[in-house]
Amino acid sequence: MNRTSPLPPSAASDEIDLFELFHAIWRQKKLVVGCTLLAGVLGAGYAFLAPKTYEVSSVLRPAAINELDALNRSEVYKLPPADALLKVGAQLDSYDARLGFFKDHEELFKAFKKPGQTLEQSFEAFNRNSVNLILPDPKKSDSLSSYIRLELQYPTDVDGVAILNGFVDYAIAAERQQVGADLKVIVNNRLSELKGKIDAARANYDTDKESKIAKLLEADRLKRAQLQDELSALRLQMKMERTNRLAELAEAISIAKSMGIRTPTTPSSMADSTRTGSSQVMRTEVNNQKIPLYFMGTEALEAERAALQQRTSDDFTNPRIAEIGKELQLLESNREVEVLRKRGNEDIFLQDVEPLRAEVARLRGLNIDMSNLKLVTIDRRAQEPLSPIKPKKPLVIALSLVGGLLLGLMIALIRYFVRSRTQAVPYTALGDRREDKDTPL
């Protein structure tokens, strides 16, 4: 016959009695309080003994419009205040700028140098963990104006205020120097461009002047050649006319001799000489016919022939010869060419270069010294912090106490469940052994 021994109430059900659980924890209150106090002491020790970390920050805002007005009105370099702030921000975020400041001020970074590390490695640790650049969130429209915030975290033995303020000034000075260099390059390039245009205008003027002189001289040579040809033709013409006149005179002399005409006469006079009567008669002869040359008589004709034969030049007989001589004399020197060649300051005769010269004068008068240029406004410079940001003592101690309390509760619960399990196992094993004895073989 089977017999089952009754089990203890604690083994009869898997349900947890909260009151019993709380009572068990209360019986172990010393353990819980001990863990809490131990953790609090450890947390307090860490809070007071851990290395302190401080934080400083600096805020930059766009400069006033009037600060950049002179630069923007130069019409050479446009730099609105917002762009200037972004340029300075890029300089602050630049690895090269930070490394340059690190190298130039090694005395400020002695705490970051570790044995066995190069200068760049020490800087990398500082740059990665200590410096933080914060920009406004573009998705948020509640910001009244754009800004740049630079934060620096540093240990106790570091002058973080000097580092941050020095780096901000270094970055602004570097960007100011960069703007000055850019402006100088742009101005020099613009001056070179304008000089090239003026040189091109000067070369064009020289070409035009030489071309004009060549055209004038060519026209003079052509005119001189034409006048020489005309003079030669006129002289040939006059020589032929004199030859023809000599031939006419010889013929007329021959006729006059055959007719016995020695002195000039007319046909009517010759007719009256054959008549008798009173010679006290005055005659008027109207005749539209040309009287033959031989009526001039041999004396006049021979005298004219002798004069023509003795003539060495016929130039005086034609007024055109004198005109040609005058024109040839004028062509000996071209006054316009002489004036063109004797110009002293030829730049004043260049065309369309007045605006270029005015621009050159304006660019050379620009002040490219950017040493006093205010790119940004330092809204807040770094100042000595009142307290470290790490460790936060109240928070560390509070978290330690809470952690110690939770640890004590966990240990108390574990001990309670272990004891409960230990007490339940013997009763179950005893019942099993009794059942085995009562079972028939």
From TrEMBL:
Coiled coil among keywords: yes
One GO CC annotation: plasma membrane
UniProt keyword terms in alphabetical order: Cell membrane, Coiled coil, Membrane, Transmembrane, Transmembrane helix
GO terms for MF: protein tyrosine kinase activity
Coiled-coil residue spans: 184-244
Matches recorded under Pfam families: GNVR (PF13807), Wzz (PF02706)
Membrane-protein topology: Multi-pass membrane protein
Source organism phylogeny: Bacteria, Pseudomonadati, Pseudomonadota, Gammaproteobacteria, Pseudomonadales
Domain Polysaccharide chain length determinant N-terminal: 14-77
Domain Tyrosine-protein kinase G-rich: 378-416
Protein name according to UniProt: Chain length determinant protein
Biased composition annotated in UniProt, kind: Polar residues: 263-280
Domain of life, source organism: Bacteria
Membrane-spanning ranges: 31-49, 395-418
Predominant cellular place of this UniProt entry's protein: membrane
KW Membrane (keyword) present: yes
Region (Disordered) residue spans: 261-280
UniProt-listed InterPro entries: Bact_polysacc_biosynth/exp (IPR050445), GNVR (IPR032807), LPS_length_determ_N (IPR003856)
Signal peptide: none
Protein's cellular compartments: Cell membrane
